[in-house]
Design goal:
Blueprint (H helix, E strand, L loop, with lengths): L6 H19 L4 H10 L6 E8 L3 E8 L3 E8 L8 E6 H5 L4 H19 L1
Antiparallel strand pairs: 1-2, 2-3, 3-4
Length: 118
């Protein structure tokens, strides 16, 4: 998908940048970052593209570098329960994705591309 610089894209970009900063700098996301670093030791960039805080667990979809989308399920209050991690390629994740989520993924890929150049 080609980005056109729309207002929607800009809003998504701002949201993704904030989520990236939270992932790497907040105490709240420390456990999630530890799971990502353990499962993807080659990770240089990561953006949370989907998050649902459920009652018992948190569900995340995170773009890792420019190659994978990790689906991670973390128990909310239990550190003893091993997180569930499923890995998809970007092309697998794209299948059946809504237009809005395709835009979000395209913006996240653009951000990752910039991060990987640094």
């Amino acid at each position: 998908m080609k980005l056109i610089g729309s207002k929607t894209e800009q809003e998504i970009r701002e949201h993704l940048i904030k989520s990236n900063q939270l992932l790497f700098k907040s105490e709240e996301k420390k456990r999630l970052l530890e799971v990502i670093e353990c499962e993807f030791p080659e990770m240089k960039a990561a953006y949370i593209i989907y998050w649902i805080p459920e009652q018992g667990e948190h569900l995340y979809k995170i773009l890792i570098n420019d190659r994978f989308v990790a689906e991670i399920e973390l128990e909310r209050n239990s550190y003893e329960v091993k997180p569930k991690v499923k890995t998809l390629t970007v092309s697998q994740y794209l299948k059946g994705l809504s237009k809005q989520n395709q835009i979000k993924l395209a913006v996240a890929l653009d951000l990752v591309k910039h991060d990987l150049k640094m």
